[in-house]
Specification:
370 residues; 2 domains; four-stranded antiparallel beta sheet
């Protein structure tokens, strides 16, 4: 059996930090990431993968990486194994090779079609046309991951997050919190691993849990843009994996509540069906859509895989790239922050004006198939 102590002796790698170039951005990022590693069992694994990605960029060898991690790992609820650290490095290596291959050759036509679709506002009306089909059912049938309505919440969590990552599920704001400490305690209680959430919902009323954060969280206190402490601010993101896309309208269609204050069920279905046609076209174009969720209102949410390494890459790729194009086409630009909340399947919207109040998962794809 290979223990941590024996593995360090076996590797006997030279000190990594002394070998790195002083002006290497990747080396600086690697050093900072090593220093900020959480305790083992407390979001250690997703951070391990992030540090491995920095190591790959900085030209760190596998032996050096494993040695560094073993020396910097802070004791927590468990002890990471030699092979666990090795797998993280090799996964980063594989992901890097895959990214190069995709950039050079994989699905160039599909990627070009996706880019053309996302920026060409003249084609929007055609993309929203269901052509007489039930596109909501078609979207469900085309889902690579099969699920029933009852199992959908757990299936979604297991598809989006790693086993030891932390997800927020709850309301945007607590109803009855008298001070900041009470609010923080409320947030902390609603951040759990996928397994813990699945166990929690065995006894809890899932219909009351309306929102979830599309990206995993660190589980540690960060700061909002206003400087207030929070467990689910942008500064609390553990992995910049997904962005939320929402197109809150349909070209040529308008819906409004009737005299009773409720939107007609047929009118709302037609609107959602047109949105489903839209996202079917996006998926068929080759865009990396991981999930599509019916919000219980008039729009559908799409969770889009971006795989950013850090906030700087997010700002460049998502804010400066994807949303700089999509906002001009009418997409909701308020969705571009990494801690954005989407609607959690299984909950029911409290607004009375919607006749179709249930929030439902319509489409799900495993990240490994992107």
């Amino acid at each position: 059996m290979i223990t941590m102590k024996n593995a360090v002796k076996k590797l006997s790698a030279p000190p990594m930090l002394g070998m790195m170039k002083a002006h290497s951005d990747a080396a600086v990022q690697y050093r900072k990431a090593l220093a900020s590693m959480p305790k083992t069992g407390d979001g250690f694994n997703p951070n391990l993968i992030r540090v491995a990605a920095y190591a790959k960029r900085a030209g760190i060898t596998e032996r050096q990486f494993i040695s560094d991690i073993m020396k910097h790992a802070r004791a927590g609820t468990r002890t990471p194994s030699f092979f666990e650290i090795q797998r993280a490095y090799r996964r980063a290596l594989t992901d890097a090779k895959k990214a190069v291959a995709v950039a050079k050759a994989s699905k160039p036509a599909a990627n070009a079609a996706a880019k053309k679709f996302l920026v060409n506002t003249k084609n929007l009306s055609k993309l929203f046309d269901p052509q007489g089909r039930d596109c909501i059912d078609e979207l469900k049938d085309s889902s690579p991951v099969k699920f029933n309505e009852q199992d959908a919440p757990g299936v979604l969590l297991e598809a989006l997050y790693e086993p030891d990552e932390k997800a927020f599920i709850g309301e945007k704001f607590p109803d009855r919190c008298s001070d900041e400490d009470e609010k923080l305690a409320w947030q902390y209680q609603r951040i759990k691993t996928p397994h813990d959430w699945i166990e929690h919902f065995r006894n809890a009323d899932i219909t009351k849990y309306h929102y979830f954060c599309v990206n995993p969280l660190t589980g540690e206190i960060g700061r909002t843009q206003e400087g207030k402490p929070s467990y689910r601010a942008d500064s609390c993101i553990a992995a910049y994996r997904y962005c939320l896309l929402e197109y809150d309208s349909v070209p040529g269609m308008k819906i409004a509540p009737g005299p009773n204050g409720i939107i007609d069920r047929k009118q709302l279905f037609d609107f959602q069906n047109a949105q489903a046609a839209f996202w079917l076209n996006v998926i068929k174009s080759g865009a990396p859509v991981v999930a599509v969720i019916a919000t219980g209102g008039k729009s559908l949410h799409a969770i889009y895989h971006v795989g950013c390494l850090d906030r700087a890459e997010w700002d460049a790729k998502v804010c400066g790239g994807i949303y700089s194009r999509l906002s001009a086409a009418g997409f909701d630009k308020a969705c571009k922050n990494p801690s954005r909340l989407s609607r959690f399947p299984g909950a029911c919207r409290p607004e009375q004006r919607y006749a179709l109040a249930g929030q439902k998962l319509l489409y799900l794809k495993e990240r490994s198939r992107l």
